[in-house]
Task: structure prediction
Amino acid sequence: MALKDVKSRISSVKNIQKITRAMEMVAAARLRRAEQRIEALRPYAGAIRRMTRQAAEAAGSEISGLPVLQEHDSENKVALLLVTGDRGLAGAFNSQIIRAGLRAAAEHDNEGREVVFYAAGRRGVSTLTFRKREPAGAYTGFTDRPAYANAREIADDLTAAYVDGDVDRVEIFYNGYVSPLTQEVRRETLLPLQEATILEVREDEEDEDERDGSGHHALVEYEPDPEVILQRLVPDYVEISIYRALLESTASEHGARMTAMRNASENAGEVIDDLTLEMNRARQAEITQEIMEVVAGAEALV
Result:
């Protein structure tokens, strides 16, 4: 490769490295804000989860009398909500959610269930459309900073589909935020409530439940009846569950993009080092050639 071409490639790679470093810094700043939003939401989300679980336990068999809480006789149609991002350049962040959703769809297909997709984020919508799995609900333009109104819009559509009998089960797939370097794919059931993850007591929540002095669950008297309270709580539970998933996904996306851009910057640095070494060798070869020509010309004059 000519010396001029090597210099041009070094310049191009340096420009790319500047862009990736800038994107890494932007992602890091956005990640900090996303982490703060998750921390602020967790107490409220935990309280809604515990209240809904306790009301469901108190309602007992009465839970089946509410339209949104009725289990369908059979599960013939399942709604899968995939939470992805609007943009790429974040490593496997988007692709792993899409793969998990498609695997789940294949499982349901094998068991004779029909699958209908819902997708948040342009990457999920475009990929499903490309694969001829047109989503019944497409929600885009907010994944960088989701608002509660976005979660409410998605929750209203999914809840209405369940109550109207268009779907018999609702599942959500999203990237759970663990750390800037780690995101885990999570699969949760939203509806029916009887199978939802909200009824599972997690270790970190068990200590927070109200208890009396003897260590047993405190007796709660409901006014109005627990099934009425539950009917009001369930829409909030669905909304807050989706909102939490959106926030976790946003933080995961920024963490994944920060890591991907850092790796890209480091790789660009290695390419620059290799090209610089190649440029120095080419320059040394040119200098050696010029010296040999000068020496040859001097010998010809003797």
